[in-house]
Amino acid sequence: MFDNSYRWSRRDFIKTAAAGSLGSLFAPAINAANADEKTSLVPKRPFGNSGRDVAILSLGTSVSLQGSQLLFRQAVKWGVTYWDTAHSYAGGQSELAIGKYLAKFPEDRKRLFLVTKSHGWTVADITRDLEESLERMRTDYVDLFFIHAVSSVTDMSSEKKTWGERMKAAGKIRLFGFSTHSNMEACLLEGSKLGWIDGIMMTYNYRLMHTDRMRRAVDACHEAGIGLTAMKTQGGGQVRTDSDAELALSGRFLKKGYTDAQARLKAVWENPQIASICSEMPNMSILMANTAAATDKTEMTTRDRALFRQVALETSSDYCAGCRDKCESAAGGEVPIGKVMRYLMYDRSYGDRDRAKRKFRRIPAEVRRRMRTVDYTAAEEVCPRKIRITRLMQAALDEFS
Description:
2 domains, TIM Barrel, 10 strands, 18 helices
């Protein structure tokens, strides 16, 4: 995840980090800039029971990467060797950029844990996407293949299980699983019972990680030997807030030598059941900041954790937790409330309005027209976080149409 506050040049970033209070945290990453190619700074953790160890920081590539080839090279040098992409990312440009890199540095393929995904819901669609992804990335296999954006484990049918087994036997994928942006806890719990899921990527951050449902779900997957990758770890919501607790949190971490964005990553890494964090790192500044956070050994204090919980509580109504089955059912099941909340997050928390507009406009025109007439009162009443759904749906229509 990224924020406009990260948009510095690499030179300015290094100058500021070295001269200011952030110098101590950024020193390892800054020194690595001049290290030899075999330098590996980012720690690794076991990926479930797969027998593979993966970098605790994963390079997310769903947006355009500034100077992608240099970024990829530096990521390998710093040990950020878990790379996450998808057939659909940037219209295929993400996978093509990885392919360009691997064509130039084929020896790095063995160092990478390469992940891609498919939105396809039939075996034929998934097969087509995988074959094209392999061709784009100039590789014979991917280390992990996800069915993308699953909202119910019923989507992971026995037919897909058989497909995964066949692709493993053919050597085209090593591990198989799914990603989920909504109804995460239910997907994790039910996925843990299937017996054939190797890995799951899910929304997981300081706002969600302490709830009883999420704890139970993560525990179940850990016990089942499923490798877990956290995404959307900054916990950005639809409305940017500046609560007293947020301001206190930011000031506290800056005094310690790191930003609140880095602190949010560290809060997730405190759970050893999370194998890796997938973070959008579209430029060298963010790669350096996140690498520095991953290599820093400072532990969170009891007070730090308490402040995170306080912020989560105070700003609860600004963050959609992805339980869209409740609100969408209450609204008659006619409009994609969960998707719209996510698109607002892309705009207001990520600062990526183009991406938000592009995805919003893929909603069929008939559904968008219906969105203007639906009464969201019942949806707001069942929302456990008391999100102002009516106002936010109208804002999306006004800003993205």
